[in-house]
């Protein structure tokens, strides 16, 4: 394993220990509401702090983009993109479906990624050009070729309802054209599941860079395609994302395309 990836794994496991300890008594946590239905606790912040402290010690010249602490040193060549707890709502309800997501971007290119599920001890990793792994075993996207035979993951809009009607139209078509839809509640794990071939595809509107950076690279390194709703590169910036095996990717784009409003297309 590349030393930078192995340090990211150590940081993710350290955050995992903080979260697991806190999960034994979620009832006692003080919950802050960032905006409607958007929660954060001291656990999200402590986990992010632990990751950044460790990586900053090792790489003092690097920049950081973390969900809870924002951007620092954003002009640096190396930027760590961190979601310390993806699936906070699940965590707060005692539902064991959440993860830690850490990606490294080098001059704009994603090079290393970790998505760690502390409940199952599932460690998904990837390095650009070196493939994707689950606990040291190589993973690949599924080989299904017909949308009708697939399980597709997604996330519902739950904070900002600007795109709710559009989303529901997309969902109706996806429900009719697939075997099943899943919404477990952690976008980074959803992407890892595409990489592992457990889902055949995934889409969601309006995610953030820290939700998709690590999972996106893991899907690509598992042989999948990641794009925005027109199949282009803007997914990391816009958070409008489709990820799937190559055969299913184009069928998902076709299914979504009649519903695209201008603001969901690739920015000009
Ligand atoms: C959320 C989860 C969820 C997705 C939301 C994200 P958070 O992240 O990934 O699955 O639907 O849009 O914001 O806030 O729990 O880190
Ligand atoms: Ca959040
Ligand atoms: Ca998240
Ligand atoms: Ca989070």
From TrEMBL:
Single annotated GO MF: inositol monophosphate 1-phosphatase activity
SUPFAM superfamilies: Carbohydrate phosphatase (SSF56655)
Binding locations of Mg(2+): 67, 83, 85-86, 211
Similarity field: Belongs to the inositol monophosphatase superfamily.
CDD domains: IMPase
GO aspect biological process, one term: signal transduction
Reaction(s) this enzyme catalyzes, per UniProt: a myo-inositol phosphate + H2O = myo-inositol + phosphate
Source species of the chain: Methylotenera versatilis (strain 301)
EC nos: 3.1.3.25
Protein name: Inositol-1-monophosphatase
């Amino acid at each position: 394993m590349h030393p930078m990836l192995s340090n990211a794994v150590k940081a993710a496991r350290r955050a995992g220990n903080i979260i697991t300890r806190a999960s034994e008594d979620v009832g006692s946590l003080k919950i802050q509401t960032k905006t409607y239905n958007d929660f954060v606790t001291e656990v999200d912040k402590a986990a992010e702090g632990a990751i950044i402290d460790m990586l900053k010690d090792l790489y003092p010249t690097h920049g950081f983009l973390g969900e809870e602490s924002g951007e620092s040193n954003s002009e640096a060549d190396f930027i760590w993109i961190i979601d310390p707890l993806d699936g906070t709502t699940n965590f707060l309800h005692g539902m064991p479906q959440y993860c830690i997501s850490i990606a490294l971007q080098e001059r704009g290119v994603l090079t290393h990624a970790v998505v760690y599920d502390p409940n199952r001890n599932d460690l998904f990793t990837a390095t650009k050009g070196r493939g994707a792994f689950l606990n040291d075993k190589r993973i690949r996207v599924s080989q299904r070729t017909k949308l009708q035979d697939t399980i597709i993951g997604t996330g519902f809009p739950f904070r900002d309802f600007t795109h709710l009607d559009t989303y529901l139209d997309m969902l109706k078509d996806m429900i009719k054209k697939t075997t099943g839809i899943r919404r477990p509640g952690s976008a980074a794990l959803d992407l890892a599941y595409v990489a592992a071939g457990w889902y055949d595809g995934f889409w969601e509107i309006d995610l953030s860079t820290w939700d998709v950076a690590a999972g996106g690279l893991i899907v690509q390194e598992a042989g999948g395609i990641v794009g925005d709703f027109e199949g282009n590169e803007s997914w990391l910036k816009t958070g409008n994302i489709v990820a799937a095996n190559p055969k299913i990717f184009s069928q998902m784009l076709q299914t979504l395309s009649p519903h695209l409003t201008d603001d969901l297309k690739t920015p000009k």
